[in-house]
Amino acid sequence: AQIQDTEPCICYAIALALIPVDESRSSEWFARGYEAFDSGADRKGALLAASGPVLGMNSEYSNFTGRAVWLQRFIEHYSAPLPPLTPAEEVRVHTAALCVPMLTHEVDPGDSRLVAASERVTALIRDHADSLSGDELFMLATGLADYSWQVGLTQFKRVDALMRPHARRRDVRPLVRLRWLWLLAAIYRYFGDYESSGRHWDEAWAIAD
Prior knowledge:
209 residues; globular; 76% helix; mainly alpha
């Protein structure tokens, strides 16, 4: 076996990088990493590996391979006391938690743990965005935005403002940037803010052209 097939941290890193590129292969690498972490009783690794597919499902708006299994795995690990995490790891985990109710269609904006997770993700993106690749930053922001618009327009606008300083980052793939702009345009339109919606649509079409 090649080293990346047996080293769970490498499996996890490969899977994370593949989310915006190849969803099917990403799921396979997350599964390899999770199985190795779980069999080795590595709680932190298993939590991170379980959070990845949840982020992928939300970012790609798809069922992802093994959807129900991954949600169950993540919820189980997130419900336990969290192990020590770096800021980059912590923002991934809490963003995945915000994605769960969107994926299960059981959104409760008043859930105290989700409110706390939202505030923590906001602070981590504000203070540690440079520790994330551009693609991952916007994937995580998508999860935060998807949760925030369920709370209300004011909360959603906070996310939009949070990400504005990163709008011109060079390490963001055009497709990732397009998805972000389309999300903003659709949600502003939902709230009846057609001016903001139109502005984001125009930016998106400029990239698409």
